[in-house]
Design a protein that fits this description.
The protein is mainly alpha-helical and about 120 residues long. The chain has a domain at about 30-110. It has 3 helices and no strands.
Length: about 120
């Protein structure tokens, strides 16, 4: 029963952070999905939202691991598990940030700007 309460608490806390982000993510004008460039723009928006969610969840897991670390009471196994959880969360944050930076770097190298549809795909 304790695991169920913990899962419900984590779900509620996650929703408290996720729902406001999703509401703010809705723009005043939705992209026209009538052509391929509109699909690309929609995919970019979804990717940005998922990236933000990944970072938020990773930070939540770091906080949970820190709590686990503080309540370990010197138990070596609990400390080791908390260290692994912190390591995995930091790796998740790093991968998420790299996933957000790589498209920007590639666009700057090939000379594209934000929101441009690739010139090959324009008709």
């Amino acid at each position: 029963m304790d695991g169920l309460k913990k899962g419900i608490t984590i779900s509620v806390l996650t929703l408290q952070f996720v729902v406001p982000i999703l509401v703010l993510a809705q723009g005043a004008s939705d992209p026209a999905v009538s052509d391929f460039c509109g699909v690309i723009t929609l995919i970019q928006r979804i990717t940005r939202i998922l990236l933000v969610l990944l970072v938020i969840l990773a930070v939540v897991f770091v906080i949970m691991a820190a709590f686990k670390y503080l309540t370990a009471s010197g138990d070596a196994e609990k400390v080791k598990a908390a260290n692994h959880q912190i390591l995995y969360a930091v790796v998740a944050i790093a991968v998420g940030l790299l996933a957000g930076v790589i498209p920007v770097v590639v666009k700057s190298i090939i000379g594209g700007s934000e929101g441009d549809c690739p010139t090959v795909l324009k008709s």
